[in-house]
Amino acid sequence: MAEQPPFRHPYAKQAGAFAIVVGIAMLAIWAYLLATGDTESLETTALGAALHIAGELVTAIVLIAAGWGLIAAKPWSERAFILANGMLLIAVIHAVAWYGDRGDLALVVFFVLVAIAAVFFVIRAEE
What we know:
This protein is mostly helical. The chain is 76% helix and 0% strand. The chain has one domain (12-125). The protein is built from four helices and no strands. The two termini are 27 Å apart.
């Protein structure tokens, strides 16, 4: 009898594309902020700012790797995707608070929509 291929959720490729797009967007945003020097208002300490930026860059890299893994049907990719989205939700919560404090409703709504999409794909990956 032929061996059955591993189960792949029908949303795996879409979830992978979501993760890759969000990861690349995070890298692009941070590259722009760092290139323009628009990071002085991040934290009151240099260490706090450095750790914040490092955490978001690691999140972006994990998102891209997990997305690629989902698209390529790698066996580790589903767990990596869940981890990456947990990291993303932490970053999104911070962004909502940051932009909410500054009264930027458009970006608050945007980040809430990113969080909803992340939760949607994680729930679908677990069905």
